[in-house]
From TrEMBL:
It is found in: Cell membrane. The gene is secG. InterPro entries: SecG. Signal peptide: none annotated. It comes from the Bacteria. This is Protein-export membrane protein SecG. It is a multi-pass membrane protein. Pfam families: SecG. Residues 92-118 have a biased composition (Polar residues). Its main location: membrane. PANTHER family: PROTEIN-EXPORT MEMBRANE PROTEIN SECG (PTHR34182:SF1). Residues 82-118 are annotated as: Disordered. The chain crosses the membrane at residues 7-25, 58-76. It comes from Gaetbulibacter aestuarii.
């Protein structure tokens, strides 16, 4: 299992935990719930210590998610593979390509049809 795969698994787990922690929290502002008459139910299960724990865990998980995403960029395997495009290949830019044989670019030793009738 590569390091990048481990980072992907950790990112998915932290993102899932972040969603769960956010969904458990009680809404703090008015929002849509207070405009529809749900403003009095916000105090139903609100304990101050639980709210502080959920706030801290949200910030911790969000920071951890951001750090994991940035570190996973370092774990991407960038082996010495051939570039996918010839424009990215440095050697191809300096290599000269031969010109095709066209009437304007024909060798001197060939005879033309006008020369063969003489």
């Amino acid at each position: 299992m590569s390091t990048f795969t481990i980072f992907l698994i950790l990112i998915v787990v932290v993102a899932f935990l972040l969603v769960v922690v956010i969904m458990v929290q009680n809404p703090k502002g008015g929002g849509l719930s207070s405009s529809f008459g749900g403003g009095g139910t916000q105090q139903l299960g609100g304990v101050k210590k639980t709210t502080d724990f959920l706030d801290k865990s949200t910030w911790t998980l969000a920071t951890l998610l951001l750090v994991l995403i940035l570190l996973s960029n370092l774990a991407i395997d960038r082996g010495a593979k051939e570039p996918e495009s010839k424009a990215l290949d440095q050697d191809a830019a300096t290599t000269e390509q031969p010109l095709p044989n066209t009437p304007l670019n024909k060798p001197d030793n060939t005879a033309t049809p006008a020369d063969s009738t003489k």
